[in-house]
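tokens incoming
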């Protein structure tokens, strides 16, 4: 049975999660996934893009149930 290892970084906006995540992914040869980057890359004219960009443009967090 193959084991999977994961590291999840939590912190307030601007606390360095992305910076540390990118660094750790290079050092440990892991995949780095950023939910913020994924959401920012959503097309503004798509249904999900309209929803999440609406929250982000106001500086708000998206709803947990949608994440």
């Amino acid at each position: 049975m193959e084991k999977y290892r994961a590291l999840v970084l939590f912190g307030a906006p601007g606390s360095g999660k992305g910076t540390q995540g990118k660094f750790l992914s290079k050092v440990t040869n892991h995949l780095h996934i950023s939910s913020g980057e994924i959401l920012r890359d959503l097309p503004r004219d798509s249904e999900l893009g309209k929803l999440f960009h609406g929250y982000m443009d106001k500086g708000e967090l998206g709803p947990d149930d949608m994440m």
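note: Residues 17-28 form the longest helix (12 residues).
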